[in-house]
């Protein structure tokens, strides 16, 4: 890619990101809930905005959003932009001016603007200049507001509801982690660290319930690293596994015995039931005998390492991130606490 | 500006695609080692088409009914599956494993092919050979010509069905090549994967065929292929299985315990493909 082309792509990317940021941010107040209410103490406005970017071959369309703002709050007329902080405001008569600094890893620009208030509304213009998404850019935003009635803002209630919903989400996530014995969620500083005691109580309970082969299979199917969960809580996973294997062997549950959890049992039972059988596989014993020959013959028979001249077994690929962990990560980004 | 935006989108998506692409680690295999020493007079285990373990893979040995892999390939190439074959007296009198055909019976090639591949039936084998080439001797010429064309240098036939005879030999490596061709031929692949089949003559008589491959239905992902046994050849097996995008081909000639050694080979080879250690740590 040539230097000019690269610069063009970068500029376009900066443009897209910044425009989307502003356009999304403009109706920020509108996203807060409100009730149209003729007797309400707040003011309902239709705010129209239009972006002007020097050098753009086509004009951006104007957008109108209905917003409910606190009466007399001049700052409410300032277009919100992500990452920007209002650093100066001044009202002289019906003229309101302001200045914003927008600075983060990718942006470093200043926005200045003024709004003029009239009998039926206000109008204004904001000018932005500086580094946007790493590129030097300049653009303006014309906006106007028309009073359309009264309203009652429910923003505070909405914030409270969102917080409650977030807390419920965290609780649900942690409960899911307890149910699946996901130790990673209960480590210090992790999302569910405060529930570690409940987590370890669940692990202790699983130490008993997993002695049933069906429960053992279900749990290890849901969480392939349940062994670590036991270790984290000081529980003896080997004892639970051994109990499940003993129970499965007694019941002739060769599917469980041959599933890879009971290889000590497989060696002893397989030596009795499978060794020397050269005939057709017996269906009932196949899971046992299949596992028996797999861990006792050929490459597995000599040593725990690969035979001389063989490359080592490929390392196990990193496990796909657990959906619950993904949920935690998302929740952490969303929640303001 | 629009074309710049479009260029940006293309560049961005391209970058994501390149970053997100993952692939299986490249095989580090050098040459196959004899991990299953003593399991067979010769054997070969291939993982994803690459030899993994082997013993004497080029040794010329009697292949018994694994010969019929070539028989099936030649018949499939030279005859329509719905062609009708009239069983000769010579074919009906074949020894060893049989469908139970009588002279004069008429069957479609597909039905005889099922007998050939599932039951390893020698009467079906001879009937097909005669159908294709007129005589077994002429058919064997075609088999050898095909072996030469496919560069199977350790393979030679003197009969069509795998009877022990001087000059009837194949190597595990050559049998592996034939087995790969069979599973890559849809009509044959569908037959070798069947545990059972009911073959019918033109006039409606049926023959219940059960596959000689005892691993069908047991080894997960097994797609066939063929068994063989004669006194000189011993117990032979060619098996092919697919799991999670990986393939394993096992060939055993003169095996001591062909079923269970094959099971161990399949499981360990797929374990290798999945990156599993050869042994699991005991839980207890």
Structure keywords:
heterodimer, A: alpha+beta, 2 domains, 8-stranded antiparallel sheet, 42% helix, disordered N terminus, B: 284 residues, alpha+beta, 5-stranded antiparallel sheet, two-stranded antiparallel ribbon, 9 strands, disordered C terminus
Overview of the molecule:
Chain A is an alpha+beta fold. Chain A has two domains: 3-153, no CATH class; 164-305, no CATH class. Chain A is 42% helix and 24% strand. In chain A, strands 1, 2, 3, 4, 5, 6, 7 and 8 form an eight-stranded antiparallel β-sheet that branches. In chain A, a hairpin with a 2-residue loop joins strand 4 and strand 5 (95-103). Chain A is elongated and about 100 Å long. With 284 residues, chain B is of the alpha+beta class. In chain B, 38% of the residues lie in helices and 21% in strands. Chain B has nine helices and nine strands. A five-stranded antiparallel β-sheet of chain B has the order 2-1-9-8-7, with helices on both faces. In chain B, helix 2 (67-78) packs parallel to helix 5 (122-133), helix 2 packs parallel to helix 7 (172-183) and helix 5 crosses helix 6 (136-149). The model of chain B is unreliable at 1-29 and 278-284 (pLDDT under 50). At the A-B interface, helix 1, helix 7, helix 9, helix 10 and helix 11 of A face helix 1 and helix 9 of B.
Task: Give the topology.
The complex is a heterodimer of chains A (337) and B (284).
Chain A: H1 3-25, H2 28-31, E1 34-36, E2 42-52, E3 63-69, E4 84-92, E5 95-103, E6 108-117, E7 121-132, E8 135-153, H3 155-179, H4 196-209, H5 213-222, H6 226-232, H7 237-250, H8 254-261, H9 263-273, H10 286-296, H11 299-302, H12 323-334
Antiparallel strand pairs in A: 1-8, 2-3, 2-8, 4-5, 5-6, 6-7, 7-8
Chain B: H1 2-20, E1 40-47, E2 50-55, H2 67-78, E3 84-86, H3 89-92, E4 106-108, H4 109-119, H5 122-133, H6 136-149, H7 172-183, H8 186-192, E5 196-200, E6 206-210, E7 222-230, E8 234-243, E9 246-255, H9 258-273
């Amino acid at each position: 890619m040539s230097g000019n082309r690269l610069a063009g792509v970068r500029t376009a990317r900066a443009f897209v990101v910044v425009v989307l940021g502003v356009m999304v941010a403009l109706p920020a107040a509108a996203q807060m809930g409100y009730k149209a209410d003729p007797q309400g103490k707040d003011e309902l406005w239709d705010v129209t905005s239009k972006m002007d970017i020097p050098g753009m071959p086509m004009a951006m369309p104007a957008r109108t959003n209905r917003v409910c703002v606190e009466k007399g709050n001049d700052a409410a007329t300032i277009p919100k932009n992500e990452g920007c902080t209002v650093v100066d405001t001044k009202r002289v008569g019906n003229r309101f001016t302001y200045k914003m600094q927008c600075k983060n890893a990718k942006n470093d620009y200043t926005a200045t603007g003024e709004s003029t208030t009239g009998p039926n509304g206000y109008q204004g213009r904001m000018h932005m200049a500086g580094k946007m998404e790493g590129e030097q850019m300049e653009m303006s935003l014309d906006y106007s507001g028309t009073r359309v009635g009264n309203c009652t803002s429910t923003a505070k209630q909405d914030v409270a509801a969102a917080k409650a919903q977030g807390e419920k989400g965290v609780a649900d996530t942690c409960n899911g982690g307890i149910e699946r014995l996901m130790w990673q969620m209960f480590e210090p500083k992790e999302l569910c660290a405060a529930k570690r005691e409940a987590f370890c109580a669940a692990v202790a309970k699983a130490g008993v319930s997993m002695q049933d082969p069906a429960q053992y299979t279900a749990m290890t199917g849901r969480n392939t690293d349940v062994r670590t969960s036991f270790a984290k809580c000081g529980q003896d996973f080997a004892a639970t596994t051994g109990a499940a294997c003993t129970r499965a062997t007694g019941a002739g549950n060769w599917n469980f015995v041959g599933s890879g959890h009971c290889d000590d049992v497989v060696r002893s039972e397989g030596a009795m039931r499978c060794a020397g059988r050269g005939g057709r596989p017996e269906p009932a014993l196949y899971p046992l005998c299949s596992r028996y020959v797999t861990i006792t013959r050929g490459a597995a028979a000599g040593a725990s390492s690969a035979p001389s001249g063989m490359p080592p077994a490929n390392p196990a690929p990193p496990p796909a991130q657990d959906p619950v962990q993904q949920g935690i990560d998302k929740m952490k980004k969303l929640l303001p606490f | 500006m629009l074309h710049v935006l479009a260029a940006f989108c293309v560049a961005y998506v391209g970058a994501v695609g390149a970053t997100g692409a993952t692939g299986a680690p490249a095989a580090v295999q050098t040459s196959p080692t004899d991990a299953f020493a003593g399991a067979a007079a010769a054997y070969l285990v291939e993982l994803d088409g690459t030899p993994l373990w082997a013993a004497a893979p080029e040794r010329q040995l009697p292949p018994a009914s694994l010969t019929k892999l070539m028989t099936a390939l030649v018949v499939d190439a030279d005859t329509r599956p719905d062609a009708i074959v009239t069983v000769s007296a010579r074919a009906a009198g074949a020894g060893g494993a049989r469908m139970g055909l009588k002279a004069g019976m008429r069957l479609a090639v597909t039905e005889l092919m099922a007998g050939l591949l599932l039951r390893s039936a020698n009467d079906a084998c001879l009937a097909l050979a005669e159908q294709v080439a007129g005589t077994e001797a002429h058919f064997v010429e075609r088999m050898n010509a095909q072996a030469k064309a496919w560069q199977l240098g350790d393979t030679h036939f003197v009969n069509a069905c795998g009877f022990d005879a001087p000059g009837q030999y194949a190597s595990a490596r050559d049998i592996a090549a034939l087995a790969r061709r069979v599973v890559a031929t849809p009509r044959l692949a569908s037959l070798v994967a069947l545990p059972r089949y009911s073959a019918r003559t033109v006039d409606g008589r049926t023959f219940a065929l059960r596959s000689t491959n005892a691993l069908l239905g047991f080894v997960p992902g097994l797609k066939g292929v063929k068994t063989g046994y004669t006194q000189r050849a011993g117990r032979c097996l060619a098996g092919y299985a697919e799991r999670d995008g990986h393939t394993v081909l096992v060939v055993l000639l003169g095996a001591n315990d062909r079923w269970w050694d094959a099971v161990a080979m399949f499981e360990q080879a797929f374990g290798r493909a999945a990156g599993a250690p050869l042994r699991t740590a005991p839980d207890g």
